[in-house]
DNA sequence: ATCGCTTGTGAGAGCGCTCTCACAGATCCG
DNA sequence: CGGATCTGTGAGAGCGCTCTCACAAGCGAT
């Protein structure tokens, strides 16, 4: 009745409220959850190591926008990062047990079936990034990674570069695959040969970008442009380029992906493909909340546009 | 019974487990919470803007270590940042309603009575940093800010600097006050006059440090050493110093506070006072969990030591 | 064989809320 | 003025667990 039913007289309501105030009564939310089945919390689940979660501004940006969107809706965010199998198991029990109304799932690897299991247990789940399997039955929000890869590669190609290479992300993740696909499609569209020696596999991290670049330069010292699949990787690319005596933005031009805040602060400032990180987080959260509300006219797939941000490295 | 009571025969237990498996039964945690009064979640509450929460590596470091420590204990973390009054109210209802077993409270400002209210509602609370009021009745974990301020100031004084200034943190927070107190005590101990024109008020942010330094240099162009109350502020100090044509580490030496990862990556690398951020987060979490367990032999006050890290700016 | 003891099992209350349903009182119509 | 309709209120069931308590079964000691 404290919820403010319509069919209660005003003075009765006031009286009860006053009394509640007086004894500082607080409704027991667990009891409410038990009967309504709603906990008013949603989970933000990241399948990465703590190290990566906190080193990559992409995840932090997503956490920030999700936290804001959830707060606006009046719910709370349960923040979990899982890497060990036991953590996964515990989270599954927690979510299935009704402690959260839904989950935002980030950084799914390979053919991991966690989202399917959550859905099977009745927990609505929204993914960040297209899943490698089960795309037809899962809900996800993604940036247009293919277009982004194409945009970056095209720019390098059109600015007269002869040997445009790419340092990829991890290929067990769709973002890694798609950005590479964008690179390939741009190379083909320009009528050039797809040369696999120009593709070096990284993992979105700075260290990975650095190592991948060193390996790349080893076999192709003539590279004069690199599209890196993430900004962090691009920082590693730039470092490797410098260490091997190349001038960045001159001998070799570089484009990153993400447009994390640090990209603009580097010198030279990094040219990159901007993902709309705040919009991604907000859209995921809204979609999840709508699903929790029971709406069923919602698109399983939402793809947000990306945009090339020209700075000094290309 | 599924919890694994001691007094159940083995074969009965196995039979039940098998059956549970078969129908993929998952215990309803809300019902359990209702009767046990435990939700197996604790809150990580930051009283800052989202902007500051995500811009300051101190908070991120605390979030990370708290998340790790909570996961080890098998609980979940509810992550909330509140700035508007309505967010506070909603959080209070959420916590008091039993959705969390305790709260880790960061960045308390002024004489905010939020922790007292939480405790009054039966929600154990552990603070990061000594509260400005109610210190006798609250639990907190803090770094030794006074000693840190003294350490930094002493080093500047002993290296022969003549006009050692300080750019403070916000003075409505105990960390800001204590680091300034450390500065003052070092100046006095060295037998020098306390010159208030050498104290410039900042707010722990880079922009604040920048502005405070500009104001400081305006009235005291002869300053040749600055102790900044946070690393972020120190970055602002360095920028202001450069903009006014001074050589950092030479014309003016600088010491920061925190030792966030970025401090070592600057050039010149920042000399700073290291706070044991991971230990701070872990200690807070352990203390909170112990309180939740009902232990009552726990110290209300825990102060962890800090240490001067010499790099290039001083 | 009977008595007490331990050990294991099953029934039932109760956690604090929401929601339905029945009823009392007020309002309206013929 | 009586009956039908509407509004507001109170009682009571039920959500799914945990925990206590009574009892059944098994066992050694008398």
Indicate the topology.
Two copies of one chain form a homodimer.
Chain A: H1 10-22, H2 29-36, E1 41-46, H3 50-55, H4 57-72, E2 76-81, H5 85-99, E3 103-106, H6 114-120, E4 125-128, E5 139-143, H7 145-158, E6 164-167, H8 174-189, E7 199-200, H9 206-219, E8 225-228, H10 231-243, E9 253-258, H11 261-265, E10 271-274, H12 277-292, E11 301-304, E12 307-309
Parallel strand pairs in A: 1-2, 1-3, 3-4, 4-5, 5-11, 6-7, 6-8, 8-9, 9-10
Antiparallel strand pairs in A: 10-12
Helix pairs in contact in A: 4-12, 7-8, 9-10
Chain A binds a DNA duplex (30 and 30 nucleotides) through residues 1, 3, 7-9, 12, 27-37.
Description:
The structure is a homodimer of 314-residue chains. Helix content of chain A is 46%, strand content 17%. By secondary structure, chain A is of the alpha/beta class. The first copy, chain A, has a six-stranded parallel sheet with strand order 2-1-3-4-5-11, with helices on both faces. In chain A, α4 (57-72) crosses α12 (277-292), α7 runs parallel beside α8 (174-189) and α9 crosses α10 (231-243). In chain A, 49% of the residues are buried. Residues 1-8 of chain A have low confidence and may be disordered. Chain A binds chain B through residues 24, 26-34, 39-41, 44, 50, 53-54, 60-61, 63-64, 67-68, 71, 74, 76-81, 87, 90-91, 93-94, 96-99, 120-121, and chain B through 24, 26-34, 39-41, 44, 50, 53-54, 60-61, 63-64, 67-68, 71, 74, 76-81, 87, 90-91, 93-94, 96-99, 120-121. β2 of chain A pairs antiparallel with β2 (76-81) of chain B, so a sheet runs across the interface. Chain A binds a DNA duplex (30 and 30 nucleotides) through α2.
């Amino acid at each position: 009745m404290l919820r403010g039913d319509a069919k209660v007289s005003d003075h009765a309501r006031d009286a009860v409220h006053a009394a509640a105030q007086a004894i500082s009564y607080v409704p027991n939310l667990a009891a409410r959850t038990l009967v309504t089945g709603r906990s008013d919390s949603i989970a933000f689940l990241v399948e990465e190591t703590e190290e990566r979660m906190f080193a990559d501004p992409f995840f932090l940006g997503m956490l920030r926008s999700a936290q804001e969107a959830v707060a606006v809706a009046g719910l709370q965010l349960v923040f979990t990062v899982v890497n060990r199998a036991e953590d996964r198991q515990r989270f599954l029990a927690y979510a299935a047990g009704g402690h959260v109304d839904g989950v935002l799932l980030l950084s799914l690897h390979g053919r991991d079936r966690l989202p399917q299991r959550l859905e099977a247990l009745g927990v609505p789940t929204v993914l960040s990034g297209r899943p490698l399997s089960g795309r037809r039955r899962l809900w996800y929000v993604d940036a247009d990674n293919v277009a982004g890869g194409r945009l970056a590669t095209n720019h390098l190609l059109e600015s007269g570069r002869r040997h445009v290479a790419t340092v990829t992300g991890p290929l067990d993740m769709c973002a890694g695959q798609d950005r590479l696909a964008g690179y390939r499609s741009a190379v083909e569209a320009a009528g050039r040969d797809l040369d696999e020696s120009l593709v070096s596999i990284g993992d979105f991290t700075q260290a990975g970008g650095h190592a991948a670049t060193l390996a790349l330069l080893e076999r192709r010292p003539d590279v004069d442009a690199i599209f890196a699949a993430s900004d962090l990787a691009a920082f590693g690319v730039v470092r490797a380029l410098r260490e091997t005596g190349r001038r960045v933005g001159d001998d070799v031009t570089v484009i990153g992906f993400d447009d994390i805040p640090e990209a603009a602060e580097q010198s030279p400032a990094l040219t990159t493909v901007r993902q709309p990180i705040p919009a991604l987080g907000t859209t995921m959260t809204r979609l999840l909340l709508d699903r929790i509300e029971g709406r069923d006219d919602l698109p399983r797939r939402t793809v947000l546009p990306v945009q090339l941000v020209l700075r000094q490295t290309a």
